[in-house]
Every structure is written in C-alpha cells, then in structure tokens.
Amino acid sequence: MDTIVEVRNLSVLFRTEEGVVRAVDGLDFEIRRGETLGIVGESGCGKSMTASALMGLIPKAGEIGAGSTILFDGIDVVRASNGQLRRIRGDRAAMIFQEPMTSLNPVFKIGDQIREALELHRTMARSAMDARVIELLSLVGIPSPERIAASYPHTLSGGMRQRVMIAMALACDPELLLADEPTTALDVTIQAQILELMKDLKRKVNASILLISHNMGVIAEMCDRIIVMYAGRAVEEGHARDLFADPLHPYTEGLLRSIPSVAAKRERLDSIPGMVPNPLSMPSGCGFAPRCPYARPECSEGQPGLLRLGEGRAVRCFLRGSRGEERMAS
Amino acid sequence: MALQPDPRSSSASVAESFDHSDTTHKRFKAFWKKFRKNKLAVAGLCTLLFLSATAILAPVLSPYDPAGDANDILFVDQAPSLHSTRQAGMDGVERTYPPNLFGRDELGRDVFSRCLHAGRISLSIGLISAGIAVVIGTIVGSLAGYFGGLLDDLLMRFVDAIRAIPTFILLIAIMSTWGGTAVTVMIILGLTSWTGTSRYVRAEFLSIKEREYVLAAECSGVSHARIISRHILPNAIGPIIVSATMGIAGAILSESSLSFFGLGVQPPTASWGNMLMAAQDINTMINAPWKAIFPGLLILVTVLSFNFVGDGLRDTFDPKLKD
Lengths: 330, 323
Description:
The complex is a heterodimer of chains A (330) and B (323). Chain A is α/β, with parallel strands linked by helices and 330 residues long. Chain A has helices at 47-55, 82-88, 110-121, 126-139, 145-149, 158-170, 188-205, 216-222, 240-245, 250-257, and strands at residues 3-16, 19-32, 36-40, 62-64, 69-72, 75-76, 93-96, 176-180, 208-213, 225-230, 233-239, 307-310, 313-315. In chain A, the strands form 2 sheets. An 8-stranded mixed beta sheet of chain A has the order 7-8-9-3-10-11-13-12, with helices on both faces. Chain A is globular, with a radius of gyration of 21 Å. Chain B has one domain (38-62, 116-317): Orthogonal Bundle (MetI-like fold), CATH 1.10.3720. Chain B is built from 15 helices and 2 strands. A two-stranded antiparallel sheet of chain B has the order 1-2. Classes of the chains: A alpha/beta (330), B mainly alpha (323). The interface between A and B is large, with 54 and 36 residues.
C-alpha cells in the first residue's frame, strides 16, 4: 500500500453556546509512505486539531463531523475503539510536541519515560528495553546517554528535551510521525540541529512525517508536499518546490512575502493585513476575502471550491479558474 | 551531529546505568535541605518522632499497669512526684513503688503509664483514620478531576451533600449506635473526613491533566488507569501528603472531642481524650489538676506538631518557594 494515511472530508466541530465552530472544515489529504507532508497556517487555522484528529485525540468538547473519514493503513480512526487506538498510538503513530519544557513528566527519569512506550507495545526483557533506550538516546545525538537516562527532565536544556521527545516518539519505530511545531519553542541554532536530526532520522527509519508549523522556512526545509490551511480549510496544496516558486493563492503569496529576508533591504516586514476571521461568524464567501488584496465582489458571495490542477496542485480561489462553486472531485 | 550510537553505550554498561539510587538520594537531600529551613516543622517532626517512640515502647517504659492493680486504691489522686516510695500494699507485703511522674488518677492508676498507652491509641487513630480518608479522598478526587463531566458532577455533589451535614453531630449519632472502640472510631473518622482531600486532589488533577506530558502519554497509548496512577498522581503527591498530615491532627482532636462526650474509646482503654473526659469535674480542677494537664498537653503538642510538619511539607512541596 502506497499511502499510510487517507483523510477524507475531515471536520472537527465545537458546539459552543454562541454557535458551532468548525476548527477543521472539509479537509482532504493523504500521506504517502516515506513522505514528509507539511501543514502550514496561522494560529487557530486548525492545523494542530488535524494532528489530534489523526491520533483520535480531539479535546472532549469537540467532535468529528459526520461523513469524516480518517484511514490509518486501512484502520478507521474515527470509528475505532479506544483499545484499538491505544495500540496504534505510540507504536505505529507517534507524536512530537511543541513544548519540550512541559512535555516530559517531571517526576519520571528520562530512561523510564522512553521505556514506557516499549513496555506498552513490545514484549521484551527489561535489559533489552534498557539497551534500546540507550540506543535511542544515542540515535538522537545525546552525549553520555546512560547518565541522561538516569536523570530527571529538569536537569536538561530545551534542545536536549526535544531530542528526548523525539527519542520517545521513535521508540517503537513508528510508521507515522506527527510533529506539531517541533522546533517553535527552540532557539534558531537548536532549531536547525533538530530539523537536521529529523531529516537524518527519516532517511534511516523511513517513516512518514506530518510536520505542522507556522514557519515557512521550516516547512521549506523539510517537506515534500505542503498544504496551506486558512480558517479550517485547505486553501492550497502542492509540491514544496512548485508552491514556493509559484504560489497560487493570495494567502500563500502573503505568507511567503512575510518571510524576513536578509538580501532585500526593507524598512518594514511585509505582513498580511487584518485578522483571522472569528470562527463564530465566518464570512459567507471565501474566508480570506476580507484580507485579500485581490478580492472581487463574488469572493464574498460564494465559497470557492478546491480546484485540482494536476500534479498534486490544488487551490481554493475564484481568481484561478472560473467560478468554482462545484467542487472538482479528486 | 552525533547520529552514530555512542561506542561507550555498550550493553554491558546498561545494567549499572539504570541504578537510580544515587539520584533518589540526591532528591531526598534537596528536599531535606528545604524542609530544614522551617525550624517549627523540624521541631514538630522531632517531637512526633519522640512521641511515636514513647508510644511504641509504652509497655517497656511504663512503670505501672495502665489498667491499674490491686494496690492503686491506697494512692488515689496522689500528686506527681519524682521519688519512689516504699510501703506495705493491701496484702501487707512491703514493696517499692516507682515514682509517679504525672501523679495518679481517681482510681489510683499511674497517669504517666496511662498517657504512654493512650498515645498508642490516639496516634494510631490519627494515622489510620487519616489513612482511610486520604485513600478514599484520593480515589474520589482523581476520578472526578480526571474524567470530569457527569461523573465529576455526581461525585462532587455527593461530597457537597456530605459536607452539608455537621460532621460532629453525625459522629455523635453514629458513635452512640455503634459504641466506641478504637477500631470503630478509626473507621468512622476516616469515613467522614475524606471530603476535603477529595477536593484538593480533584483540583490538582484538573490542572495537571491539561499539562502536555499527559497528552504526550495519551499519544503513546497509555491507558486512563495508568495515566491517573503513574503520570498524574505522583505530581499531585504534595497536597495529598499535606492534607494527610493535617488530617492526622484533625482525627486526634475529633477522637478527643468524642471521648470528652463519652462517645469515643471507652475506658478502661486509655486514650488522651477519654483521660481528659474522666478529669472533667470540679474536684479534679482544684485537687488533682495533673489528671487533665498531662493528657491535654499531649494532645496540644501532638496536634501542633502535625500542623507544623504539614505546613513545612506544604512549603517544601511548593515549587514557587525555591530555597
């Protein structure tokens, strides 16, 4: 099988007293084996919620919309039992978190935390587990792994903890790694090291990676394919090279323009004017229309469909193609 | 980027690498260093250790039988003294009587020996009923805090209902039907005093379950039971220990109050509370105050010590108060 994850028409809803919030609205994508897919977008665009949905771990207040399908290697994550999901989590799919400082349990030694996934998913002797823990810690480039395995998280720096988090995620050789802003909390030099490490590891273990970030630089560095999300919807999709060379959606264009560049001497950073729309009162038309420099009257009337352009490219915008009310089927 | 496994990490060195005794020892040392700063808590701890030792060694340390013997009748309400006496007993045989450090009571029994044995009863009532309360409170609090929703509502409204009943009236009602033995007092006090702990634990769980390491554990496929017991509970242990310490003091006081009304541990078994109860007449106040002073002092010192230790532990566990 070529694809490991297939997501069809995924919606995540939150019913609040003021109305229904659609954190993710009709998202379609798949992740192929060995591929790195990037999801990029502003805070609150639904990218983290997508990762949680893949793990079957959306917050209690939320729910997966009817008609959503998430297939993980043929297993329907939306309808799977808790026990079934627990067997996947940490074993076949693992997650790396944004905040290395708070994602390790302060009362557990590093070695014990990494070993937990092994205890849950593998039957092996304690000594073999300990050996595996040491192996994992050296794999993620931690010096003197024996000493680190026996120490508590508070004695480690942020970069070291993120390495530990990655070691934990890799413990059972997962087929899918979900990395939710894995480098956002780290300073740039450590960020570069961690990204380098993840690339190297991917080559070694041949896992698929879903990388979630708001940082276009990180995405460009890491990903084969990219999905740009805005207000819960995918607005553009494509191979990394194409998307960076020729952004089709005005939002993507804005994101790329707002990357600070050393070469171009500018007084001010470019930014996209305006704010993400309030999820409780979404504009009736295109969600980006109020902030879009190219907005036309029809943009605030109807919702543009996702237009598939071939070679993996897709865009959701009236400016490309004629009125795309009818959604082009994939 | 050292991606190659470190050559030093041969499996031979793995065995000793997981020997954690060293770091545990260090952690305890750091804890003790912080705790030691609170002089009252240290004094309380020393007092408690001393009182526990005297309670454990009561049969060895007691010069007299706490339940009294045939010759007591000769020495009713004798004042405390530091000297032993020698005189003939009821049977006419002359023998030496060890000093009565705390005097004798209205039946001629040695108050010192009774206080030592009462310490066993009172301290174990404190420990065991606080233990029962902490276990129930922790279970209820962690279930309510972790699962939330309807279960939380049900459990917490049940707690509210229990707290709405004046505990002491409830205790008097139950004790007067069940009758007071040390064991029933322990159980009843335990069963009626867990609500505070359950609220503390629930509050801790509400905050800790939102931490990222709990989500990380969920993402590794850890079950709810294991998340509660292995990931959250150890992080909430501070408030639990503090409420246990305070609970011990509270239970000792409750037992004393119950005994004061004649509903606690029944004589001739001595508890500090029922010794006080036996001393509550005007004759005692004027002629033999030692019968009330010594058990009263012991209750006061014990409860204060437990509260000081509890305060000290709370400060030590509070991460915001760094060294």
